[in-house]
Structure formats: C-alpha cells, structure tokens
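Database export, one record per block. Field names are fixed; values are copied verbatim from the stored entry.
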Amino acid sequence: MMDESKERAILVGVGRPSQSRWQLNDHLDELELLARTAGAEILERVVQDRDRLDSAYLIGRGKVEQIAEKVQSLELDLIIFDDDLSPAQTKNLQELCDVKIIDRSGLILDIFVRHARTREARTQVELAQLKYLLPRLTRQWKHLSRQVGGIGVRGPGETQLEIDRRLVRKRIAVLERELVRIAHQRTTQRKHRQNTFRAALVGYTNAGKSTLLNGLTGSTVKVQDQLFATLDATVRALDNSDKRSVLLIDTVGFIRKLPHHLVASFRSTLEETLEADWLLHVIDITHPGFEDQIATVNSVLKELKVGDKPLLYVFNKIDALKNIALIERMREKYQPSIFISAQRGIFLQQLRQQLLEYAEQSDEEFAVIIPVEHSQLIAKLYDWAQVLEIEYTDGQARAKIRTTPQNAQKISRRVRYYLESKQTNGS
C-alpha cells in the first residue's frame, strides 16, 4: 500500500562510456537512499546512455518526453536527477514534464534542512540553499521582502525578479557575517581544548562513525540508518583514557558528487577536522563500493587541505563480512589500518589502545624560559600544556612542558610575541 503523504518520484540517471553498469546502478541506489531519507517514494528508475550530456535537457528530448508520459500515467509528483542540472535545464525539463524537478544537490540540501539542529548548522544550510537557488530564481522569494522596508529600497525600473534576487543576495551577506561570528565563538571554545589530543572521525556517510563514537566514549549520540544523520560536529572524551586526555570528534559524512559549494559552506563545521591531530577514516567494509567511497573521502580531505594529516583506516562492520580473505588484502593495501565492529564492540579495545599510544607518542616535550615578573604568562602555561616541572632561578621560570606538536608551535609563538610586546611597551 502506498503512503499518500510521501511525494511519488522517479529517478533519472545518465550512463557514461567510462562508467560500468554496476557503478551506474550503485549511484542510483545511493540516490534512492537519499530520496527515501528526504521522504520520497520511488516508483521507477530511468537510465539513458549518452556519450555527451545534452545542454538543454541533460538527457535527450525524446527520453524526456517518455518520462513526461510516465509522470502522467503514474501520477508522479517529482523527478530526481542524479546529476546536477543547470538553471536552463531545470526550466526546460519543467516545461516538458509539468512537475517538480530536483537534482542531486537540491536533494542533499533538502536532507540537510531536515537534519540541521544547531544554530551553526541551520545557518550553513540556509546559506547553501540560497547560493544554490539564486541562479534558479523564478519569482519564488517574494516573501523575503518582508525583511526590509518597502519604500526607498527599490531601484527605478527594477522588475520583481531583480528585487527578489537583490533580497536573496542581502540575506546571503547577513548569513555569511553570522557564520564569521559563529566561527569566532568556535575558536574560543577550542582554546579550552588546546592541551588535548584530538582525533576526528571522518568517512563516507552511514559508515558507522556515530556508532563508533558511542562505543569508544560511552556516550549516547543518536544513531540512525540514514544518510547525513549527523551534520554538527560532536565532541566526546575517550572512555577510560586516564593516561592521556583524548577527544573524539564526529563530523558530517562525505558522499560522492558532493557539490563544491556544500563543502565550502560546511567548512566551519569541518574546522574540527582541520584542527585534529589524527584522523580516523571509518569505512563500511561490507559495502560493495567501499573502495570508491575511500577515494571519495580522500578526495574531499585533499580539497580541505588535510590530506597530509596522520590517518588510520578503520574498517568497520567486519561482523557482517562474508569474505574474510578481504581483510588481509585491505590490510596490505591500506596502511595503517584496523578492522573492527563498532556495533558489537569487536576490537574496540585495540583501537582505544592505539589512540592512547599515538597520543603519547605524538606529544613533544620542550622548555620555556620566562622572566618571573610575567606571572600571568607563567600561569597561562598550565592552560596551554601539561607542565611537567618548573624551576625558579636567577629571576627566571624554566618550565618543562608537554603538548601536541601543533600546540607546541602555537605556545612558542605566543610566548615570544608576549615577551616582545612587553619589551616594546617598556614593561
């Protein structure tokens, strides 16, 4: 029995000469999961093989006319394309099919809207939506005029569409300023964690990152079998880590064909990844295309300029793996790596031990010498690092401290800057 509350949809994919039929079907399987996550009911799939994409309709006009007939016969509400559509293509398709058209980016944005919880996530989602919709604007944003005064804001000869576009650009500027303020707040929050080793969980969406976070920290972060269930960075302390303070950071999942403007919009959320000392790349080893997913994640990490960070491949869901021989092949191919089941707790203790050992090994010990009259700076050392010992001789405090390599450089720069500024000011 069909759910009348759901939008009835058809999926459309394009086969390329360089793409196997299995890859195409895998992409459409993922698109269907995205659509179901957004609340759609998928009734059919349509695929057209093309050497070159059509500039007017993406696919051929004849195929579009066939789809339009299916829309009528199946009483569909929505057509979802696996590839991004240009504004002109969307307009042409809507004229022929007389139904709502959405592409992969629009679908992902819709899911983001549903899952955004914090002020930062909601701001990022709205900004990404407006940037996506601005070139596609067709008199659908008149309600934004309520946010500004009507008299004196309209230029002579402007059309309503031009006014709408100007209002959207103004809203984009407001949101960008808001994200700058939020970024400053997040920077302040991270200052309190400067002496803490941070490991970020990254990976393809639905790979099991939140389940792993719960297993390692004893937390109860909500776990859902949905794409993009996690949008906000979640930070938890490693469970039973009495030897060393370690924080785990769960981040938004990656996905193939993730639009560049979405990566840019979520950069502030992913800043936790940029600041991490170690990356745990979580992989669903049971997925038929997990190596393609690995490549997708590595590509996004490279785009974020964190591709050179220390990384551990964490192959998850080994309890559901039928081909056990695959583990040894992947162990040789992806190094360093570990194989676990986050849900059943298999080899989680070994992963926890690796985290602690790496945190200990990555620390640096170095000495800092500060004149004793700068007691405020000496006190700050205890916030910035682990002070192992401190001696006061000849009017100087010589402190031996331990911290992460990244933090060691920051401390050295801060101490030098502080002392130089005091000297310049004559105090």
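Remark 1: The chain has four domains: 7-102, 116-190, 196-361, 363-424.
Remark 2: The radius of gyration is 26 Å.
End of record.
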